[in-house]
Specification:
The chain is of the alpha+beta class and 320 residues long. The protein is built from 9 helices and 9 strands. It starts with 16 loop residues before the first helix and ends in a 23-residue tail after the last strand.
């Protein structure tokens, strides 16, 4: 569905800002509390917490993160979910969000209503309060920027640093399905991330948004590199179907396409892998977990292992 109205009467220009804000409050419903704890004041007042706070932001932009093929409700849900995935990557739980939306005056009110209702449905599911935001206009542009506040789910948050040579590399789920819909159908790994943060043997973690081949560099310790078992990479069935259309290998799609929103983490070499994997299966019997390799000293790279230097994920600002 195109975000643009066919005539002015169906566009946001026909409403103006004040009427539009009133509608947005109605579309969001109970996920947006009354002021000063929600929309309506200069700032939103949030309750104090004893846990450490985490904050992240991500947008959805027309022509980059979505197009006319994506239902507007799915666009709203994707906006929240890709921010939730960032919290999951550090073992945090969501609390509240603010949303800045930039619209061409020609944007359809019907499209915008479905966008906000999709966002509200996702917010209800993951217990996120939408507490404020901003509206502004721009020519030939539609974009929404969500800032999400969360709290540590336990005494520990996991960062991207901390991995060491010898540590095992694990990923959740399957990789390579984003081009055929996974980029908006995914479920953020909030429960899994919180569980992993409680395991002291998990040394570093992040979510996969730009492709494993690129993102894994952020976890790699100095003087080491990831040695990947190509046969172990959990390639999705979608990536295998896509390979027949693109003439690129299923493995290439799994490593490079991005927007998988799975978790990749380093498990200490001293950890009991069998016991760890057994505990995972008890906690998450429906979520696949795969050991795909380990970090090794560059001078000790094993024969037969896959080097990722020949693969590239999504690189922002590069024109292809």
């Amino acid at each position: 569905m195109s975000p643009f109205a066919k005539n002015k009467s169906g566009s946001v220009a026909a409403l103006g800002e004040e009427k539009l804000i009133a509608l947005i409050r109605r579309w969001l419903g109970p996920v947006s509390p009354p002021a000063p704890f929600g929309i309506g004041d200069d700032c939103a007042v949030l309750p104090a917490t004893k846990m450490r706070r985490l904050i992240t932001t991500d947008p959805v932009i027309y022509g980059r993160h979505f197009n006319d093929a994506l239902p507007p409700a799915a666009v709203g849900a994707k906006l929240l979910k890709r921010n939730l995935s960032d919290l999951a990557a550090m073992g945090a739980q969501p609390a509240a969000a603010v949303l800045a939306v930039t619209l061409d005056p020609r944007v359809s009110v019907r499209w915008l209503e479905q966008f906000y209702r999709g966002l509200a449905a996702a917010a209800r599911r993951w217990r996120v309060r939408i507490v404020g935001g901003d509206l502004t206009q721009a020519k030939n542009f539609v974009g929404a920027y969500l800032t999400l506040l969360g709290s540590a789910a336990g005494p520990r948050v996991v960062t991207r640093t901390g991995a060491r040579a010898g540590d095992a590399i694990y990923v959740t789920g399957e990789l390579g399905g984003s081009r055929l819909g996974h980029h908006w159908r995914f479920t953020p790994r909030l429960a899994e991330g919180a569980w992993l943060a409680r395991q002291s043997a998990v040394r570093a973690m992040m979510d996969i948004s730009d492709g494993l081949a690129k993102d894994l560099r952020a976890l790699t310790p100095r003087g080491a590199e990831p040695a990947i078992d190509a046969a172990a990479v959990p390639v999705s069935a979608v990536a295998r179907r896509l390979a027949g259309q693109t003439k690129k290998s299923p493995l290439h799609h799994a490593l490079c396409d991005g927007e998988d929103y799975e978790l990749v983490f380093a498990l200490a070499r001293t950890a009991g892998r069998i016991a760890f994997e057994k505990a995972w299966r008890r906690a998450f019997p429906r979520t696949r977990l795969t050991r795909i390799g380990q970090f090794v000293r560059t001078e000790k790279f094993p024969v037969g292992a896959l080097r990722l230097e020949g693969f590239a994920g999504y690189e922002h600002f590069q024109v292809k």
